[in-house]
Every structure is written in structure tokens, then in C-alpha cells.
Amino acid sequence: MAAMDEIAVVVAHSERTTLRLGDVFLKVDTVQTRIDREVAAIAMAPIPAPRVLWQKPNVLAIAAVPGTALGRLGEPSPASPAAWAAAGAALRKLHDAPLPPWPGRSLDEVAAELEVECELLVSSAILPADLVARNRRVAEAAFRPFTPVFVHGDMQITHVFVEGDEVTGVIDWSEAAPGDPMADLAGLTLGHEERLADVLAGYGPEADADVIRGWWSLRSLLNVRWLAGHGFDPAAPGCEIDVLKARM
């Protein structure tokens, strides 16, 4: 059977499944709003994004973007410093674009979720109390006034595709909304702290490294239980738990 005739399962869990058939991705989502927002965000995005082929209830078909992912969490990135800088420049362009017309999450909502997650991480003995407490303090840097911008919302290195030193596509826009620009920068560099300077060289001087570090801790604390419950391993080398340990 030719590779283009094989169905590959890209992601599969109880909320979302993504399948690939040749150069077409099918995204099945239990929440129709996420699909609607992804289509709208792709149409608004001022940076390379997938082409929407068609949309039906709870299903979205998009075309593959060219290039290869900037890297993977837990693995050294093969991309050049210039490619990372290009990713930073793409984020800068996105953050300068007009806001999406739907609301994003408030910091109060994020803070409430963080409190619940920290308590559960400790009470369930998933993480040591001192590790959670230290990262909870680091995460405080994220809770400050900011001007909302057009954020991708799930920015990570597997969602940014490059060819050489050029960004050829950014995928998975279902979480796009008005939000904190430092959260996008933190997501992109999570587990790849050594690349932060390259990203900021492309992004510009408006970034705040302390807030980005706060978001590394915040994002990791919020994600550990979800990842473990959906078939992912946050304890894999270089992943979320290692990110939390790096703050100690």
C-alpha cells in the first residue's frame, strides 16, 4: 500500500482526534466551537497557516503545510538559530494583527485553575510539594497587567513548520484568542530554553524574559495531569516535569 493511501493517527484522545491521509488532515473535535474558531483564526492570521479544505459538523479538513516541524519537546531541535528567529518574527507579526472578535481567558480564570491544579498535584502525590510550591511562585510573574494581542494559544515547536530559515506554516489554531503575548513565546520555547535568545532576536525588545519563565512554570503545572490522563508522558526527558525541576 502506498504511503499516501495509509491513514496515520496523529493525535487521538477523548476530546480530539487528528488523522492524516496523504496531504490532508482530518480533525475531529467534540467541541464545535474549537473548529469554528480555528477556521476563523486561520482566515485572520497574517502568517502562513494551513489551507482549509472543508468543514462539517465536528470535522475539519485542512491541507498539510510544507516543511518540517521546528522540533519536538524533549529532543534537540535541528533547526538553525535563524529559523528560531524567524519563528519569533512570525509571532511578532501575529501579535501586531487585529484582535479576534471572540473573548480569551482572563488571568483570573487561569489563576483559579492553577490553584486547583497545584492542590491536586500535591494531594494526589503526582509531584512533590516543594516542586509545586517553587514553580507556583515562579508562575506569579505571569499574573500582571498586559495588553491583549492576537495569540495562537497553543504555540509549541511541533506546531511551527520551517524550510531552511523560513517559517512555512503554523498549525493548530483552535485555541487562538486575545491573550498574553508572553504565553505564546513561552509555549514556543518550553523545554528549549537555550533557544529563547534566538526567538527574541526575531521577536523584538518588547518581550519580558521573567514573564516567559513564569509561563514555563504556569503552563507545565497546568498540563501535567491533563497530559498524563490523555496518554502523554509529562515525565519524559526534557518535557514538562523536567521544565518544572529546572526552576528548583
TrEMBL record:
Gene3D superfamilies: 3.90.1200.10. Residues 34-207 form the Aminoglycoside phosphotransferase domain. PANTHER family: AMINOGLYCOSIDE PHOSPHOTRANSFERASE DOMAIN-CONTAINING PROTEIN-RELATED, AMINOGLYCOSIDE PHOSPHOTRANSFERASE-RELATED-RELATED. This is Aminoglycoside phosphotransferase. It comes from Paractinoplanes ferrugineus.
